[in-house]
Amino acid sequence: MQTSKLILIASICCAFTGQASAIVRCELGGKSVNPNNGNETAGLTGMLRCKDEDSGKLQREQELRNGKNVGLERFFDRNGNIIKERTINERGNTQGLEKTFWPNGQVKSEETADNGQTQGAVRQFYETGKLRRLSFVQDRRELFEISFNTDGSYAELRCHASSVLAEDRKPCGFEGKTDTKILDQTGKLRTLQTWEQGKLLVSMGYRDNGELESDMRFEQGRRVHKKFHDTKNQLREERVFETSDHILRSSQGSPLTLKQWAASGQMVLHTRYADGKANLTERWYLNGALKEKVSVTGSSNTTRTLRENYADTGKIASRETLNADNQVVGLRQIYFSNGNIMREDAYSEPDGKGRTQLTRRREWDESGKLTADDEILEDGSRRR
User: Fold this and answer.
1) What is the domain extent for residue 44?
2) What's the CATH code of the domain at 137?
3) Do 197 and 106 fall within a single domain?
4) pLDDT tens-digit series, residues 10-27
5) Which segments of 159-276 are extended strands (E)?
6) Nearest residue to 94 (alpha-carbon basis) of 68, 59, 119
7) In terms of DSSP H, where are the helices of the chain?
8) What sign has the CA pseudo-torsion 178, 183, 187, 190?
């Protein structure tokens, strides 16, 4: 047997276990065999066992069938504790059950694969033996997931539209609508979820102090997403989406309205949508006075946006109309703080390149007296 090849075997084993290199010798049926030498393994059938030469601890077991590595395969740590077990096919891919183990011998994970591709239930365990995570995989997609804290309480839950395992029946609402609490490792409530037939209907998120952080739910078939300020469950934002097939937590789809509030409870933003595009947006000062109003009419190249800005006294400050290219069209007006007009600019309709041009400017003093009325020529000069 060639020592260099044996060292190579040891290196492979130790690369898997993360241990220092050691000389490993293999045997089958009491006979020394070099698994890297095809002449020595040709035609052999049985269990190849490889041990650390110094300690005598088992490091690897590999089933041979007519000289090929097919069947059961086990790996062990330096102390001889099993760390992985699986069956492999002629391609070297997992075929059937695969398990990993904690140093104390408890199963760490187990799953089933078809030619190396995971299919069906995947289970992960704590070192104590308690289930930590359970999922279900089909066609490389994870359809279901449930995670547990060390005390057995739910840490995470994601359901499929149909039941895939016995363990999803109750928490996913396949036995009737149910409320499921999601806790952290300290026992604090993180999310309260309502499920029915695999569909998440309500999801309420909580902060460390127990205050409500978010609220997502279906109302009349529409997704309603709410967020709250840090204290007193004060509403901060509300998004309402048009009816669609999107799941509750999705932020995709056509919006219907968006509202935002300050911590004081004063609404500061309200946007309404049509066909997924904003057609009216209003903003307010914290004193309740209207700050800005933007309304959109038309569609595509005919879009017109009327924007009005206001002082915190409620008096209008400016008004203008923009086209689809964000060019001012028609009149742009600016006002004094007393509400009287200060200046009025007139713009032409867009030319062939979509550009508009200032054609006239009028100005007033604060009392309302006209002080200038200028025609603006193409070169920018004025004619009064």
Assistant:
1) 1-92
2) 2.20.110
3) yes
4) 444 444 444 456 788 999
5) 178-183, 189-196, 199-206, 212-219, 222-228, 235-241, 255-261, 267-274
6) 119
7) 3-17, 38-41
8) negative
